[in-house]
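To the wet lab folks,

You asked to see what we're planning to order before we commit. Fair enough. Below is the target structure as tokens, and below that is the sequence we designed to fit it. If anything looks off to you, flag it before the synthesis order goes out.
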């Protein structure tokens, strides 16, 4: 039986594009682990994806994951089938334009094949303490350039 892990993620950007940061909170039972990172030149969407990637990569074995994000871009791509359509359309959108951030989407595809992941949308900058913590981690990563 796989371990059940809850993950919250958030990405932030100072300017879009601009300096970016991401934050993640992984929870397994009573254990909590915080992760964050920085990029000197990026976009908000890339940081949202990177938060999910880094959190899933931090898992040491295949897990059952509930991943919570305030990013409609991330959650809708999975839950509304956009990612599946993009891959079957040779990485083209419904408008026949190239999908942005293909490198990161390919990483997410690999990770969701390894783990059993369900994606959940949460309201950003609201009263969700875990999402707010990830936002803090992401903005601090930008502030501290690391």
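Sequence we intend to order:
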């Amino acid at each position: 039986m796989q371990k059940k892990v809850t993950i919250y993620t958030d990405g932030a950007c100072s300017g879009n594009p601009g300096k970016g940061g991401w934050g993640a909170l992984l929870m397994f039972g009573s254990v909590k682990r915080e992760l964050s990172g920085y990029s000197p030149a990026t976009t908000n969407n890339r940081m949202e994806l990177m938060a999910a990637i880094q959190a899933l990569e931090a898992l040491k074995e295949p897990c059952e994951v509930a991943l919570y994000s305030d990013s409609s871009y991330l959650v809708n791509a999975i839950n509304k089938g956009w990612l599946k359509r993009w891959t079957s359309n040779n990485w083209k959108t419904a408008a026949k334009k190239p999908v942005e951030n293909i490198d990161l989407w390919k990483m997410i595809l690999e990770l969701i094949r390894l783990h059993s992941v369900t994606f959940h949308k949460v309201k950003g900058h609201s009263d969700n303490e875990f999402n707010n913590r990830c936002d803090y981690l992401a903005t601090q990563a930008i502030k501290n350039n690391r």
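Structural context that might help your review: DSSP finds five helices and five strands in the chain. The mean pLDDT is 97.

Thanks,
Computational group
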